[in-house]
Specification:
Blueprint (H helix, E strand, L loop, with lengths): L3 H26 L2 H18 L8 H21 L1 H4 L6 H4 L14 H7 L4 H12 L4 H8 L3 H22 L9
Helix pairs in contact: 1-2, 1-3, 2-3, 7-9, 8-9
Length: 176
C-alpha cells in the first residue's frame, strides 16, 4: 500500500503532467482511446517506480514521463492488438470529436499536418515547440546524438512546410 505522501505526489503529478502525456500519446497514435490507455499505463508505471525516482526534481519527473510515454507508444505499435486492428486510413486519422476536451493546441491545421509526419518527426516537433526543450535536451531524452536530433528537426520542419504549402495553409514565420 502506498503512503498518503506517495498518493499525493501521484495525484499532483497527474494533474500537472497528465495532459502532456495524453498529447504525446495522441499525436503518436492518432487514436484517443489508445492515447488514454497509454496515459493510464504511464501513470501505473509511475506508481510502481515511485521509489526509484527523485520526487523533488520536476525536470527529472517530466523527462521520465516523456520517455516512458514515447516507449509505451512504440510498444503499442509492436503489440498484437495494433497489428490485428484495421490499418490507419484517412477517416481514422481525422480529428476525433472529443479531442478538444483534452488537447489545447492552438492551430488545429498544424496539428492535422503534424499527424501526417513520421512519429520521430512528430515527437521532435512536439518536444521542441510545445514542451520547449532544446536540441541537447531532446537528444538526451531520446538517447540520440545532437546532430541526429538537429537533422530530424530540420527535416521535420521542411516536410511540414512543404505539406502546408501544398495544402495552401502555410504562413511565413509560423515554424521558423
Amino acid at each position: 500500500m502506498k503512503s498518503s505522501e506517495e498518493n499525493d505526489f501521484i495525484k499532483l503529478t497527474f494533474t500537472h503532467y497528465g495532459r502532456m502525456v495524453l498529447q504525446i500519446a495522441y499525436q503518436n497514435t492518432a487514436n484517443m482511446s489508445e492515447a488514454e490507455d497509454i496515459t493510464q499505463e504511464v501513470f501505473l508505471k509511475l506508481m510502481k517506480n515511485i521509489s526509484g525516482l527523485n520526487n523533488n526534481d520536476e525536470e527529472h519527473i517530466k523527462a521520465w514521463l516523456i520517455r516512458v510515454t514515447i516507449n509505451q507508444c512504440k510498444d503499442y505499435f509492436k503489440s498484437f492488438r495494433y497489428r490485428k486492428n484495421i490499418a490507419l486510413t484517412e477517416s481514422n486519422l481525422s480529428s476525433e470529436p472529443y479531442m478538444d476536451n483534452y488537447l489545447d493546441i492552438e492551430d488545429k491545421q498544424i496539428f492535422e499536418e503534424l499527424k501526417k509526419l513520421p512519429a520521430k518527426y512528430r515527437n521532435i516537433i512536439y518536444l521542441y515547440y510545445i514542451e520547449e526543450y532544446t536540441v541537447p535536451e531532446i537528444a538526451n531524452l531520446l538517447a540520440a546524438k545532437e546532430n541526429t536530433v538537429s537533422s530530424w528537426l530540420r527535416r521535420a520542419k521542411r516536410k511540414l512546410k512543404m505539406n502546408m504549402e501544398g495544402e495552401g495553409i502555410y504562413e511565413e514565420g509560423r515554424l521558423y
